[in-house]
UniProtKB/TrEMBL annotation:
Domain Threonine synthase N-terminal: 4-79
InterPro entries: Ser/Thr_deHydtase_PyrdxlP-BS, Thr_synth_N, Thr_synth_N_sf, Thr_synthase-like, Threonine_Synthase, TrpB-like_PALP, TrpB-like_PALP_sf
SUPFAM superfamilies: Tryptophan synthase beta subunit-like PLP-dependent enzymes (SSF53686)
Protein name as annotated: Threonine synthase
Organism whose genome encodes this protein: Pararcticibacter amylolyticus
Length: 435
């Protein structure tokens, strides 16, 4: 597999380099030079395949010879070890549950696959890989649990004190082994700034082999294509073919993966990018102007992104032609008030509890139904996190229905291990240097 940078298409690297670098020197993003179509025979019989079988076929198609078959199979077997069921709510409305992994969010797909690919590419005697990551909640949990126990890796997670939910904090701070949590007295932006400074500090880079493992890493994007194919397979089993996917979007990695799947030959009628009031992309669709803005805090905080880092990948897939994007993608944005209402409506209608991010994807489906006049044979909204991660927004009957999964119950008695630090780079650097 060869990849190019969106900023300098003529220079290509192999998969291993793209995985360890995350971002090219020129600050572009890595994209596959070739996106081969899957064999039509495979799509024809996809309904007879398991998630792992689908994942292998799709990964093989993209990675080509970057990882030998048997090793790729082993990586997928280990990484994709939880289901991604499509749950039917009514005759034409479905929810794709992506929260059955260890951190209860769809980011487990990306983080688990990436950590295992990194572990695989590390040769004997290579220097320990030091993963630094800043989190506002979900990314840190997925990365921590993804790398937990992966040999030759050490993960440092920075999170803002008092600004993650209790379950998120448990996932960040109870791991031990090769995972350590740093509780920063500041905001998520402070955490991110500290990580960025660390990457530019020569002394730290001399002492450690630093990597960021963030959401732009191509090894996080690839495994997210698997569940789109797998959702299609499940719907095909039900006799549904015309599928619309609505994707709660922040950095646009999830929907980017869906579009990559579509480029590989997945039959999809339409994608809907659903955002909160951080509506840079929906605004772009309306006005034709791409105007990134500082992010605004919302209930769906994992989508509080003012300048979605994966957007350029999507534009690249369509050769920077917005009209081309619009042929297959719609976009819509919603307020916190609408989000709360949707959580309630979905519960009343279906006795089903969604997280605030997921509620936004449902809203976009409902609107699309109304405005397009299309009665949609299979509208699928992606559920990106388990509701128990966002307990503050539920009241009364709904709150009672939010179950705590076994993965979380296991963590509940464990002691919190985190180093508290000021939001100060010198302090953070000293902490890293001593370790
Ligand atoms: C990260 C996240 C999103 C946004 O996904 P992107 O790939 O950044 O668009 C949505 N919902 C939840 C729960 C998340 O953790």
């Amino acid at each position: 597999m060869k990849l190019y940078s969106t900023n300098s298409p003529e220079r290509t690297v192999d998969f291993k380099e793209a995985v360890f670098n995350s971002m090219p020197q020129d600050k572009g993003l890595y994209m596959p030079v070739e996106i081969p179509k899957l064999d039509a025979g495979f799509i024809d019989k996809i309904e007879s395949c398991s998630l792992k079988e689908i994942a292998y076929e799709v990964a093989k198609n993209l990675l080509q010879d970057a990882i030998p078959d048997a090793d790729l199979k082993a990586i997928i077997d280990d990484a994709i070890n939880f289901p991604a069921p499509v749950v039917k709510l009514d005759g034409s409305t479905y929810v794709l549950e992506l929260f059955h992994g260890p951190s209860l969010a769809f980011k487990d797909f990306g983080a688990r696959f990436m950590s295992r690919v990194m572990g695989y590419f590390m040769e004997d005697g290579e220097r320990t890989l030091n993963v630094l990551v800043a989190t506002s909640g979900d990314t840190g949990g997925a990365v921590a649990l993804g790398f937990l126990g992966v040999p030759n890796t050490q993960v440092t997670i920075l999170y803002p004190k008092g600004k993650v939910s209790p379950i998120q904090e448990l996932q960040l701070t109870t791991n031990g082994q090769n995972i350590r949590a740093v509780e920063i007295d500041g905001t998520f932006d402070d955490c991110q700034a500290l990580v960025k400074l660390a990457f530019t500090d020569w002394e730290l880079n001399e002492k450690f082999r630093l990597t960021s493992a963030n959401s732009i890493n191509i090894a996080r994007l690839i495994p997210q294509t698997f569940y789109y194919f797998n959702a299609y397979a499940q719907l095909k089993r039900e006799g549904k073919a015309d599928v619309v996917f609505s994707v709660p979007s922040g950095n646009f990695g999830n929907i980017g993966a869906g579009l990559l799947a579509w480029k590989m030959g997945l039959p999809v009628k339409r994608f809907i990018a659903a955002t909160n009031v951080n509506d840079t992309v929906p605004h772009f669709f309306k006005s034709g102007f791409y105007e990134p803005r500082p992010s605004v805090a919302t209930l769906s905080n994992a989508m509080d992104v003012g300048n979605p880092s994966n957007w350029v990948r999507i534009m690249q897939l369509f050769e920077h032609d917005l009209e081309g994007v619009k042929k297959i993608v719609s976009a819509a944005s919603y307020t916190d008030e609408q989000t709360r209402e949707a959580v309630e409506t979905i519960f009343e209608k279906y006795q089903y509890v969604v997280c605030p991010h997921t509620a936004i994807a449902w809203l976009a489906i409902e609107d699309y139904r109304k405005t397009s006049g299309d009665d949609l044979s299979a509208a699928v909204f992606l559920s990106t996190a388990h509701p128990c991660k966002f307990p503050d927004i539920y009241e009364g009957e709904i709150a009672k229905q939010v179950e705590i999964p076994a993965q979380v119950k296991e963590l509940e008695g464990k002691p919190k291990q985190a180093t508290g630090l000021k939001a100060d780079f010198q302090v953070f650097k000293e902490f890293l240097m001593k370790a």
